[in-house]
Structures are given as structure tokens and as C-alpha cells.
Amino acid sequence: MSLPGLVCLAFVWSGILWLAATLLCRLKPSPRAAQAIWRVAAAMVLAPFAASLVVPGLPQAAGAALPDLPVLEPLMVAPVAGEVATKAAPVRLPDPATLVICILIIGWTVRLVLWIVSQVRLQRLKRRAFSSRRDVRHWAEALGIRRAPDVRIVPAGPAFLAGVVRRSIYVPSALAMGTDTHQILVHELVHLKRGDLVARPLERLVADIFWFSPFAWWIRDQLDYWREAAVDEAAAEITGDRIAYARALTSAARVSRLEAMLPVAAFTLRKEGTLKMRLTELLTEPARRPRRLGLAAAAALLLATPLALAQGMLIKGAGAAPGGDVHYGHAVLDKATLTSAYGARKHPITEKPVWHNGTDLAAPEGVPVYAPTVGTVTLAGEREGYGKLVVLQVSDDVKLRFAKLSDISVEVGDVVNAGDVIGKVGQTGEATGPHLHFEVWHGAKPNDPQDEPGLILADDLTIMASSGAKPPVAPLAPAAPAEPVAPLAPEPLEAPPAPAAPAPPEAPEAPAYVMPAACMKQVGWIEETPLPADWAERLTGARAANRAAGLKEGFAPEPLSPPHPSYPAGAASEGRSAMCEVLFDLGTEGLPKNAVARCSDSMFDASATELPGLRFEPVRDAGGNAVEVKGVRYPLQYCIG
Predict the structure, then answer these.
(1) Looking at the whole model, is its pTM more than 0.70?
(2) Which of these, 232, 262, 379, 234, lies nearest to 317 by C-alpha position?
(3) Residue 235 in contact with residue 198, Cβ under 8 Å?
(4) CA–CA gap between residue 469 and residue 599 (Å, rounded)
């Protein structure tokens, strides 16, 4: 369930509770019983969200394990067309979850601002009040109030009770000297006795939190009305004169001007029509309450409680699936070797051509497997072919599968955070050695985990040349030249393909990588092509600048991570290959800048210049300070068969 779904759930649930409380109040309960009904309704609106903090999550249905799909013929790995169609980022609208949370935050902010404004109005009105000699101690003693509040006079507005440390009753000057003023004072004393100074703000929270639901506002209105009606009944019983009390209520409504947005309970309500309802309730002889009222209220509560708990379990299970973009914050493994990539391959056991839905990451058995992002466990157990499998739902559309595990550390319904251990690497199911089979699914379609934005398969990842991991680029690490043109930057004599890391003995074997003939023709291009004049001039200046920085002749910076440039879409569609050389300055943070490129095919110049992901160990002088290195040369080979 997404965040918009949770909002819809709150809307529908508040509507059901409002309808149930309305039907119960048609059985003509006493004001006190009616207030209790609406209090329960308000509490039940919040109950599912409160229950989600303590109840276990409701397990979500897991998708069935999809078998490998056969392919008609083996295909050689090729660059993906359209990887670099344009540098301009496409215009994307925010996902629904983001829009909903922004709207909710705006609404809550407005409610907070209005509350602050109401507090300012209240404090301003209290500052304008002056003391009165009216003594209410005997009424306070009759109600069992130990400390009688002060009585203060305000120029205008309704009568109300306010104060946290020093509580006072505020009466408008037009009613201060009336014959029925004691009725108003007793009314506010009853509020004090009942604890409405604390209860009223809590009851009104239902509309502040669920401001988007009209049912929450109607529940709040009913709470305000029945609170005053219950206090009217109690105050009239204490004073012993319902007629006088009704007269005082009418006089207050006639002369009082309600201050807008006061965060207190006023003697008269702002909503039109409530005065007539309160007078009717006050002056009508109490009828015998039907016995079925209590039974109906008990039945409604018994029905609503399990529904609220079930919703809490659903919310708990959906809390990790916001339905929007997934943000990865942790690597799946600490260290691993990518032995088999996503795509077409020969099955390591059956040797039949199949489509590999995920990525195989070889690692020692028993090492921990981490959740790369927050999610809800929807499956944790044995599955044919997958062995021990954990499925993690990370959004409405995206789920992750962790297979071949030796041990599972989570249970269905668990909500995990990025970095939590969900299991250990193993070789259960169909496996030729210890490894993690990892899949990324978007809806009913598997995606290449290497293409998942922000996902890190391992902090220390070795990619085997035989793994089938797609180019478009096989970067060549710079080697120290025999006769360097740039003394401080390596100029390789040869441009061999990227060296293949040896496969662990447990990893499934795969055919060795053979460079296509079209790519072999490009190998000696750098050595055979003379440097452009501007390059030679820049390298001469770089040599002098590096000497001035205290760097030795023949110095070569240490690369930390290779680049991952995109294969130009046009070149991929035409089957072109190229050899490139990039000239750049190395900044103090270890990142290349001011890069220019020369390629055997100019179609590759722009892609080679970008060098995304290339990073070096920052170069430091004798004093340990990071310095800039000028004129670093770096070869790249774009190969396609």
C-alpha cells in the first residue's frame, strides 16, 4: 500500500466511524453518553496508526518465482542503444507519493500556523482583561475543586476558561453584572472539574492530523457540541434552575461576539444552530434511554477494534513501501566477484541457452547479505531453483530477490532498513558454488541490477571478463610508458583489453572473452597517431607545472575506480568501435577536470571526455598537502562485435 493508499484508508475509515457514531446518537443517548460515543469515534480514527507501532506487519502477497526464459540463439553482449541519447535530463513529474506527502505537510503547516495565530489572539484578549471581585469559592467547593479560579472581565467576546498554571474564568463585561452570571461561572467550573482544559485540545487533534477528511471535521464538531451539552446538563443540575440556565445561555449568545480561532472552549459555540439544539436538549424532560443503546454501542466497539488492529497490521506492512522512487543507501555485499551478469547465457548446470534474470555475486559462504534500502519482507523460505530465498518489497513496483542463501535472518512481515542483515551467502538450490543470486523486479519484469540507479552490488566488486557483464566500455588502466611524452602522466605503449580477474574456484565456469576482430584493429591507434599540436603544447606546460609542485619525473597517479562512460547510441546502432585517449588535469580531490579527448572515430569524443566514475588517490606533496597534477593521459577502448 502506498502513501496515497494510506490517505484513502484514513478517509474511508473516518467516514465509517462518523456514520456509526451518527447512527448510535439517533437512539437518543444522554449528552454524557453521546460525548463518550464521539470520543471513542475520534480515538478509533487514530487507532490503526497507533496500533501499527506495536502490532506485527500484515504479510504481503509475494509474486510467484518466474522460471528462466529460453532464448532462440546466443547473442553477444553489446552496448545498449540509447544510453547517451542526450545529456539533457528528461522532465519527470513527482511521483504520487511525493505529491501526497508535500500536500500533507502543507496542510499540517497551515494547521500549525492557525494554532499559533489563535494563541496570539487568546493572549491578547487575556492581557485586556481586568480582575473581578466575584467569588466562586462556594461553587468550587460544591464541585470538589480545591483551588477556585479567579474571575476576570474581558471587554467583549464569549465566556471561557483558560490558563495552565493560573486558571481563570473570563466573562464579557456585558454579562458580568447580570442576575444569571453565576450560571455561566458554574458552567466553566464544570469544565474545570471535568478536565476539559486538557481533554479538549486532545479531542480536536483528530481534525488537525486528518485535516483532509471532512468526516474528521464533523467528528470534531460533534465533540464540541456534546461537550457543551454535557456541561449544560451538569451545570443546570448544580444550580437547580434549568430555566435560569437557559436564559443565561440565550443572553450570552445575544451579547457575546465570538473571537475568531480561540484555542479554548467558549460558553457559546460559533456554529449556527447549536444554540437551539442545546436549549432543546436542556429543556426537554430526560427520556428513558433504550436498553438497545448500550448493546449497539458495545457491538460497534467490538466490531471496530479488530478492524482498527487489522488496519494497523496493514499499515505496518506497508510502511516500507512508499510507492515512489527507491533510494539505496547500502551495498548488498561487502566484497564479491560478479561471475554471471543479467542477460543471455548458458545455464551453468544444464548448459542450455537461458535468460538470466539476475546477477550472480560469488563470495565466501556465510558472509552477510545486506538490505540495500528500506523494505518489507514478503517471502522468506525455500523455493525450487532459488534455494533459500528472501523477497524484499521496496516500493509498490520494485521488489528485490536474494537467492541461494545458506541462512535467512528475517521473517515475513519484518520491516528492514538499509544495512540490516537479511541472510548469508550460500549455495542452496541449483548452484555450483557459494554465491548470491540477486534480482531486481519492476512489476512483472526483471531488470538488470547493474542498471538500477543508485544500487551498489558490493563495496569491493570485481567483474570477471567472462561474466557477460555488458560493456559499452572496457577501460584500460594507464601503464608507465617507456618514453613518456608527458613525464608526469603515463603513455601506454599498448592498449590491451581490460585484464580479467581470476574466477574463484567455486564460481561457475564460462567461455573466455575473445576480442572481436573489429576491435583488434584499434589497439595500436594511440601509438601510431601523432599528438595534436595543442596537446603537445599543453603537455609541455604541464611538465613544468608539475615540477614546480614538487612532483618527481615519471610520477603516475593511482586510480581508485575506473570510468563508466556510455556507449554512443549512434555508434552502437552502426556497430562502430574506437580507441580513445583522454587528456585531463587531476584535481586535489582526485577527480579529473579540463578533459579533452581524441578518438579514432570522432563519434566517441564526447562520451570519452565525460569519464563518469573515474577517481584517483589524491596526490600529495612532501608536506602532505594535496596538489593538482597537470597533463594526465588515459586510454579508453570502445569495443563492439
Answers:
(1) no
(2) 379
(3) no
(4) 24
